[in-house]
């Protein structure tokens, strides 16, 4: 030989280190035989697993004799993992222990998933304790995890190998409703399959009724006493009169900020991977909201927030208030299908007493822009001064006085590559100066009355999402609040809808209207109807399979709606609201150089958002959401004429869907030749299929291209299940295994 073998590394807690082997030792003999190459070394170790061997090494010129029993590689290779809320945890393997210089068997996070991810735990982290219980191995972690109760918040300690000497602390919010119960997967050495065994919960899961109610509401208090005061503000909560308009801008802004502060909040939204519906582009959002209703007696509180913060219904919401340091869970009550705002509810009766008294709904500035008004009126005009008020990440109010540069500009949000919600037919307010970064708030007058929601918009630019903030006039927000309160009084929670004219409009300046063939008399009528905007509306696109798609054509210039000249998006909405139920809307449009009258059927669009997600073979299927139909195409089944409503919105890595090319942005037209226009028909067509069966699917893409492919089912790892909103009025979500 030309050299010797030298100990380069040892694994903490391994047989070599435990028996005295040190880095730098020169290997001489094993079992009485000289060992100078790796082949001989490996053969000797393989032939003597768990058998004590005499090992001779040279250390610093001296011969050292050791007795070492080689370990079994299978014993330090994970054959068991714990799957919990989309995350995977297992014992640290020998290979990773050698890389990280850590003992084999530590609790290793292979994939954080939803709950661990929200606690800040990253991939490759080592968890050392959960709920103040040490977790040296997987079994200890499983026992601590099994003892957690739904809705509880506990401390979690961990470290990452790059900073192994710094222990980090996170707060784990145990929320398991989106995922199956935690379970062990054990590898069968005979079949190679990983068999699933539910994680047992010691001591049962019975909770105290009142505590369970508080946990569902998102309140972690152990108890609270009702106060004796009725509506009186606490002594340390300032009540400020904001009506003074004298003094500097800084002084005026500060007064308004202090008056508005009890109505502001921060809304945090987290979405489980299995609940990413409607093409949403992220799993976490955060933005400013404003309390628009607060009644501890009925237990109802409402917050308005933009849809770049609450994009879909299947999400977890946490509301943090500026009025008093507390936070509570929220639920989506209202998602406007075309305007950039949502209404979130919270249990006002579950808040601490001081919070109940401190939080106040924001006042709205009076305006004549309600849907029942007959003429257009703007809450603010160009040149008006307003106060922009928002919250910092530390829940401290920020405010400044700004001037309105344009109160009638169009949001003009283009379609994204992956169809998702965007504001359509929306006029916004622009300011000369804002906070300098894209974070929301409210615009108020100097009486601390809200005139607009300073909302964040997701705008696609060159394949990326850019945030921009603009003022959304408050009129549709007031209408939505009143509708939600009415639905709650009538016990019709989650069933609301809005009437829409399903067309997207562009703005045409009146100066160019004549070039498009608009008669001069109509130009004058539109000018008299609104001297400020000086514009007309043209049809940019129509929503597929609606009355507008039958009556309107791209390029039509809309001159009148409901017999009245119309020049603004809000004017069209007003005409729609005044149209009798189940009656078409009369429109006067310029088409091919002639003014013609057309009748357009209106639609009822749900404000509840997508409430059903089907997971099949690793693909996520859902009803066709509105942003897809806004592209102008929706396929039909040629045999029945029914519109297809089984849309693939996501697929998951490692699944049969990925393996066989069952990708997103396709409709499923048939399964094994059986038409599947709805999710129910798809479930019926696939219910009897066995594990390992081959399934022939016909797909239709967004550009109407058909495709046929075959998928081999793997129901052991990828079962069929459904995530759906309950219909009992609680606005909860349930997971159903099919």
UniProtKB/TrEMBL annotation:
<feature type="region of interest" description="Disordered">
    <location>
        <begin position="199"/>
        <end position="254"/>
    </location>
</feature>
<dbReference type="Pfam" id="PF12812">
    <property type="entry name" value="PDZ_1"/>
</dbReference>
<dbReference type="InterPro" id="IPR025926">
    <property type="entry name" value="PDZ-like_dom"/>
</dbReference>
<feature type="compositionally biased region" description="Acidic residues">
    <location>
        <begin position="222"/>
        <end position="233"/>
    </location>
</feature>
<dbReference type="InterPro" id="IPR036034">
    <property type="entry name" value="PDZ_sf"/>
</dbReference>
<feature type="domain" description="PDZ">
    <location>
        <begin position="1"/>
        <end position="72"/>
    </location>
</feature>
<dbReference type="InterPro" id="IPR009003">
    <property type="entry name" value="Peptidase_S1_PA"/>
</dbReference>
<protein>
    <recommendedName>
        <fullName>PDZ domain-containing protein</fullName>
    </recommendedName>
</protein>
<dbReference type="InterPro" id="IPR001478">
    <property type="entry name" value="PDZ"/>
</dbReference>
<dbReference type="Pfam" id="PF13180">
    <property type="entry name" value="PDZ_2"/>
</dbReference>
